[in-house]
Amino acid sequence: MTSKREIVMEYVNIGNRVLNNYILRTSLGYVVIDTGYAGGFDRFCKGLKRTSISMEEIKYIFVTHAHDDHVGYLNELKQATNATIIMDSQSPERLLLGQNVWDGGYSSRLAKGFVGLFTLFGKGSHNFPVVEKLTDTLLWDGHTQFLEEKGIPLKIISLLGHTKDSIGLLTSDELLFLWRCDYEWISKYQQKYHLD
Questions:
Q1: Which of 141, 154, 162, 181 could anchor a disulfide with 147, C-beta 3.0 to 4.6 Å?
Q2: Could you tell me the end-to-end alpha-carbon distance of the chain, in angstroms, rounded to an integer?
Q3: Per-residue three-class SS string for the chain
């Protein structure tokens, strides 16, 4: 029998210093965690080419929450892949707004400063293209484990605070994927899930 620690999820980050763009390789194809800002689809395609991943191999798009830096080119990626989208049940309503909702506050002082800087330079609205047609979408109800049911060792978990629709993925080898590498938030889950 294989232990939990022996199953290691392979992943690649084709993002940059500002935006992490993780792609997880599974036995059923790739899972893309979030998209970047609007206008970033071409850069994403170049990153795929560098890693020899084809659009056809992308089977799932996991949306951690509906903010501009996470769903900016969701429409384009969905159209190019025909992948199944997984998001929190509250996300579709937020995607129809086309603008960030700050109901959970900021994940850190750095994030708050970053938003303030955007506002100072006239970019404070944090708009993104409205996502209307959500065919082939699985809405997480707080319990159903869509990926585990397919044999993919990724557990969907609720993430407290940042937005009401924040969710993350926990791998079978206990690696947590969430919206940013924010140590304050990761430490809460390190304690809860005994992560090192």
A1: 154
A2: 24
A3: CCCHHHCCCEEEECCCCCCCCEEEEECCEEEEECCCCCCCHHHHHHHHHHCCCCHHHEEEEECCCCCHHHHCCHHHHHHHHCCEEEEECCHHHHHHHCECCCCCCCCCHHHHHHHHHHHHCCCCCCECCCCCCCCCEEEECCCCCHHHHCCCCEEEEECCCCCCCCEEEEECCCCEECCCCCHHHHHHHHHHHCCC
* Residues 41, 76: Cα–Cα separation, whole Å: 7
**pLDDT over 90 at 11, yes or no:** no
Q: Which residue has tokens 């002082």?
A: 109
* Token pair 């800002």: residue: 37
CA distances from 72 to 25, 43, 164, 170, 195 (A): 22, 13, 19, 24, 31
Q: Among residues 115, 96, 120, which one has the least CA distance to residue 104?
A: 115
What is the share, in percent, of the chain residues with pLDDT greater than 90?
42
* pTM for this prediction: 0.81
In this structure, of 31-40, 117-126, 150-159, the range with the lowest mean pLDDT score is 117-126
